[in-house]
Design goal:
Layout (H helix, E strand, L loop, with lengths): L5 H7 L22 H6 L5 E12 L5 E8 L2 E6 L2 E6 L4 E6 L4 E3 L3 H24 L11 H8 L11 E5 L5 E5 L2 E12 L2 H14 L4 H9 L2 E12 L2 E17 L8 E2 L9 H17 L10 H13 L3 H15 L18 H8 L3 H12 L4 H9 L10 H12 L7 H11 L4 H13 L3 H12 L11 H13 L5
Parallel strand pairs: 6-12
Antiparallel strand pairs: 1-2, 1-11, 2-3, 3-4, 4-5, 5-6, 7-8, 8-9, 9-10, 10-11
Helix pairs in contact: 3-4, 3-16, 5-6, 8-9, 9-10, 11-12, 12-13, 13-14, 13-15, 14-15, 15-16
Length: 483
């Protein structure tokens, strides 16, 4: 197996240099899993702790906050809103019990957003400080960023948090002279096991600094009342949780097995979700290996290339050669030992045959200069005449990636979709579109693309998802309190 990177495509014009890669890690139950499949991955029942709080959040109506904590899941229902964090399958499941539907995004998308946003705020805060901005907004101050995201920035000094205890057991936590959390412990004891579960739960259900969460859990008691300051944009509100009940219980996984999945939730006016939903039927057929009679084999590509050459459409043959490379890896365009039919054209050979077509010169120049002059590479690719071409997947994905790294990033999305429509079996197309969404801070859509790509037949042919597999391992190892 070999890894295909953007920079390697230019090198492939002269020589193909394989890089050893590990197989992509296909999630045990990804976004296409049914409710029944998700339930089947968990014990039929398991020990859990059910906690009910009354919640007062600023001017909002009072609601009941129900929390069910188990070893491999956390279920949080806040009024009509319910989310199940599945720590076994690494999913963040949103449940609508009224419509009996659910969505099943990756838990890594949730943690990834927090981690990337914390890093982003640190950099922006540093830039503002370097510019001598004296009144730094709270959102860029380490304490408040760490509070909102429930992560600790290891590169920042720990905040100075003052703790004051009253005679009645109430504990006040103060930062920069102001109370940010007030806790009154209840008589409900936390066992050693439930302390860990409650620590994890607080990081999802409340906006409290991780250092304060640790001290809350160290009391060994559930809070009778927990009052905390919640940052919302540039403002702050006060949230009060009052304990109503707590009980040990035995429960099945909380997602009903007959609920229907909703892969992409299309909010009104959301053109991105609508466009993704439009291409989804093709993608789902490809996931099952049923689109166009299955993935295009190497021999099919070679026949298409040979037909293009013999019919005088050598530039189309060149585009197919690149698409073959992107789908099947560098070994697929190496002709040594190939059977006599269909004829195997090496990349160097097909470049020579197509050299008389001005589109070939523009295409190759764009590949060669992209790293140094991305704007010119985009201009060259846009200028390629598509008349007579019946497969432009390689051209579309190259243009999409170039646009992603340009000030015109928003124009890239349509070309990712065009590439996938042309060939939904190329795992790298999903990886690249996932990276596009990650740059846009749409982590939910980024990981949807990554998961769909890793679920394709022959997804590991090019090792495209090594980087994402490693990123997920790092998110988990660096943030164990969220897993």
């Amino acid at each position: 197996m070999r890894t295909i990177r953007r920079g390697a495509i230019a090198a492939a014009l002269l020589i193909c240099m394989p890089t050893i890669a590990t197989a992509a890690t296909v999630p045990a139950a990804g976004p296409l899993a049914t409710a029944a499949q998700i339930r089947a991955a968990h014990p039929s029942t398991q020990a859990a702790t059910k906690i009910v709080f009354e919640k007062r959040d600023g001017e909002k109506a009072v609601s009941l906050l129900t929390v069910i904590m188990a070893d491999d899941f956390l279920d949080i229902a806040d009024g009509e809103n319910e989310q199940i964090f599945d720590f076994k399958l690494k999913r963040g499941i949103t449940v609508n019990r009224t419509t009996r539907r659910f969505s099943n995004p990756s838990l890594y998308a949730t943690i990834g957003f927090r981690a990337f946003e914390l890093n982003n705020r640190r950099m922006l805060g540093g830039a503002l400080a370097a510019a001598k901005v004296t009144a730094l907004p709270d959102t860029f101050k380490p304490f408040w960023a760490e509070t909102e995201l429930a992560l600790v920035d290891q590169s920042s000094s720990p905040p100075t948090i003052e703790r004051q205890a009253a005679a009645d057991g109430t504990v006040s936590f103060r930062f920069e002279g102001s109370e940010v959390v007030r806790l009154k412990p209840s008589g409900e004891a936390l066992t050693v096991a439930t302390r860990k579960l409650f620590s994890r739960a607080l990081r999802y259900l409340a906006t409290i600094h991780p250092a304060i969460i640790d001290q809350i859990v160290e009391t060994g008691r559930l809070p009778a009342t927990l009052v905390y300051t919640q940052p919302v944009g540039g403002a702050k509100t006060t949230v009060t949780l009052t304990l109503r009940s707590a009980e040990a219980t035995t429960t099945p996984f909380p997602l009903p097995g007959d609920f229907s999945d909703e892969l992409i939730q299309a909010a009104s006016g959301n053109s991105t979700a609508a466009a993704l939903n439009a291409v989804l039927p093709i993608v789902l057929q490809a996931e099952a290996g049923r689109y166009a009679n299955g993935p295009r084999a190497i021999t099919d590509y070679r026949k298409g290339i040979a037909d293009a050459v013999t019919s005088g459409a050598a530039f189309q043959g060149l585009l197919l050669e690149f698409e073959l490379l992107l789908q099947h890896g560098t070994a697929s365009i190496e002709c040594a030992g190939s059977p006599p039919a269909p004829r195997c054209y090496s990349l160097k050979e097909i470049v020579g045959i197509a050299a008389g077509d001005p589109r070939t010169r523009a295409f190759l120049e764009a590949v060669q200069i992209e790293a140094k002059d991305n704007g010119r590479a985009i201009e060259l690719r846009r200028g390629i005449d598509r008349k007579g071409l019946n497969d432009t997947a390689a051209l579309d994905i190259m243009l999409a990636n170039a646009l992603t790294n340009s000030p015109k990033r928003g124009e890239a999305f349509q070309f990712f979709l065009s590439a996938i429509r042309a060939n939904p079996y190329v795992a790298g197309f999903y990886k690249d579109m996932g990276d596009y969404f990650r740059f846009e801070y749409r982590m939910d859509l980024a990981w949807l693309c990554y998961d769909l790509g890793r679920s394709l037949p022959e997804a590991d042919a090019t090792g495209n998802f090594q980087q994402i597999d490693q990123l997920e391992r790092e998110l988990e190892s660096r943030n164990p309190s969220l897993f």
